[in-house]
Every structure is written in structure tokens, then in C-alpha cells.
Amino acid sequence: MEALIKALPKAELHVHLEGTLEPEHILALAERNHISLPYASAEEVLAAYDFTDLPSFLKLYYAGMAVLQTEQDFYDLAFAYFEKAAAENIVYVEPFFDPQAHTSRGISFDTVINGIYRAQLDAAAMLGLKCNLIMCFLRDMSAESAMQHLELSLPYRQWIIGVGLDSDEKGNPPSKFAAVFAKARKAGYKLTMHCDVNQDNSLQHIHECLHKIDVDRIDHGINSLESDELCELIAERGIGLTVCPVSNRFCVNDLTGNEIRKMLAKGMFATVNSDDPAYFRAYLSDNLQALADDAAFTAEEIVTLVRNSFLACWLPDFLKRPYLLRIDHIANKFIQTSGVAA
Ligand code: HPA
Ligand code: ZN
């Protein structure tokens, strides 16, 4: 299974760049930027990661990213993630970034996006990794602030493939951002939104995503399984669901393997992703391996999930096809080989 997971070319559709900031990197950037932290070692940083739900995670996530100050810091953050991704044979990423988490600390939008974009160009050239950025709005900030950031992004429209919605969901439904997302759609952006697991009004939020916002994808979206009508709509429209098993194990105490299986059985495009791998201590391959080890996912199921990420990604069909052909070629070899050995 480990060799199969490594050999398959993979896509990641739900990873927050700020959530890839490793403890060692937090310490190095703090030193470079003369910021004092209450931690002397990476072990001490890790020991402080005691989140048990979304709000307790977000507190540490925002505290960690405060060390990011300069364009070079954003370059280093993104390039370090791209190197890790390429090493596990991820060939395509649609990563999130959270500009408001930086502009609210006095860092300019241009500083953030220029650093990330430069890393993206270098990752394509040096690592053969392809990437399209998704700009997320923080849903616990105002719709006016989201609109301002949408305006700030427009000069960079060609660098950003879509917009998303993240941060604390409680009391912050998709409909709060209906005008922002309508304008983003007009500007040509693809649309996605987090519907985190077991939030207040999760089902209502998914309903709004589908009926009011007309999203192209849903991030997490596990609670859609509570409604046959919503499941049918998601399957019918071919909407991808970016599930994050190890993140779910932290935030709701469950790898959600059964839920992923139910989605596949209903013809919904479930995909597997890492969310915030430096915090949840698991990158994409670790998430796939966890499903195999702890939820008995078979090689065929893993291949389906890996294929789904390319089907649900926002590349044009002619660019998806070579990846799908390669997956099928590798999967056939592995599954036949293991069949013979058995
Ligand atoms: N949910 C909401 N906000 C976030 C997440 C998440 O999974 N990760 C980083 N910000
Ligand atoms: Zn997320």
C-alpha cells in the first residue's frame, strides 16, 4: 500500500499554505524577524498544539503565522511546502491562502501574493509541480472586508483560480458572503467554501452553498450525508468534496472513513486532503495511509480517491486526462502484481 500511494501521481485540493508552517520554520522565521516566542525548541512548539476542535485549532494557526512578515517569508513558506509535496509525488495543488490574516497585521496583499507566486513559478521550473492558488476569505471577518480583499485580488486575477471561505464557521453562514461570491463568479473565479464537520447548522450551510452560492466544490462537507436531497444534488452536479481525514480525527475524533465510503457509494466525488499538515502532523500520503491502516481502505478504494482529486480539480479536461491515464496505468500494474502474489 505504501508503495502504491507513493507511485500514484496525486493532487491536493485542500491545503492551507499557512497550515504547512512547520515548528522549525516558525522558530527560524521568528529569529530572522526578531520576534520573541515563548518556545525554545520545535518540541516545545509541538507540545503547545493541544487543539480538540476548530476554534482551539484556529487560535494556534493564527498565532503561528504571525512570524510571516516579508515577501521572502511567504516565498519560503510556499516553496518548503511545494518541495515536500513533490517528494511524495504530488504533481498538482490548489492551495489556499488567507490574505486577511496578514493584512490585518499590517502586511500588504502584494507582499503575500508576490512571495507565494514566485515560489509557485520556481516549483513549476525546479520540481515539475503545477499549482493554482485559491484565495480564502475569513468568515469571522465582515463581508465588507471580504469585498475589499476581492477588489485587491483583481489585478492578480490571472494568478488565482478561485476563492474560498474558511476560519470560524459558528454564526458565519455562506449567505453572509453571497454578494462577494457573486462578484467573484463574475470576475471568473471558481467558488468553494468550507463546511466544516459537525458545526452549528452544518446542513443549512451546505444547503446555502448549493442553492444560494452555487459553489463548484465544498471543503469538508461530511454533514451532507444527513440529507438524501443534498447528496443527490452533489452527485448530480459533480461537486467535489475535499475531505481531510486526519484533520477530522483531531477536530471531531473520527477519521470519517465510513463517511468517505458512503460518499463513494452515492457517486459523490470525495477526495482526500491534508488541510493543515504541519499542525495535524500528516501530509497527503499520510492521510491516505491512515485510511488504509485504520479504516481498512483497499488499493482499489485508494486509487478511486486519488483519481477523484483530478476529476474534481479545476484544470481543463485536456490537462486532467494525462494524469488520469497515468494513474490507471500504475494502478493496473500494482493491483495485478499484488493479485498474482496473493
Ligand atoms: N477550517 C476552517 N478554517 C481553517 C481550516 C479549516 O479546516 N484550516 C485553516 N483554516
Ligand atoms: Zn481547511
Main structural class: alpha/beta
Top CATH class? Alpha Beta
What percent of the residues sit in helical stretches (DSSP H or I)?
A: 40-55%
CA-based shape: globular
CATH architecture: Alpha-Beta Barrel
Q: List the domain count as a whole number.
A: 1
Total strands: 10
Assembly classification = single chain
Spell out which ligands are present. hypoxanthine, zinc ion
Order of H and E elements? HEHHHHEEHHEEHEHEHEHEHHEHHHH
What Rg, in angstroms, do the CA atoms define?
Answer: 19 Å
CATH fold node name: TIM Barrel
Averaging pLDDT over every residue, what do you get? 97
Number of helices: 17
Largest sheet: 7 strands, parallel
How would you name the CATH homologous superfamily?
Metal-dependent hydrolases
In what range is the share of β-strand residues? 5-15%
Major sheet: arrangement of strands:
3-5-6-7-8-9-10
Write the layout of secondary structure elements.
Layout (H helix, E strand, L loop, with lengths): L1 H6 L2 E3 L10 H10 L9 H6 L6 H11 L6 H17 L2 E4 L2 E2 L2 H4 L5 H19 L2 E2 L1 E6 L4 H11 L6 E7 L11 H9 L3 E6 L6 H12 L3 E4 L7 H10 L2 E4 L1 H8 L4 H9 L3 E4 L4 H4 L3 H12 L3 H14 L4 H25 L1
Parallel strand pairs: 1-2, 2-4, 3-5, 5-6, 6-7, 7-8, 8-9, 9-10
Helix pairs in contact: 5-7, 8-9, 16-17
The protein binds hypoxanthine and zinc ion.
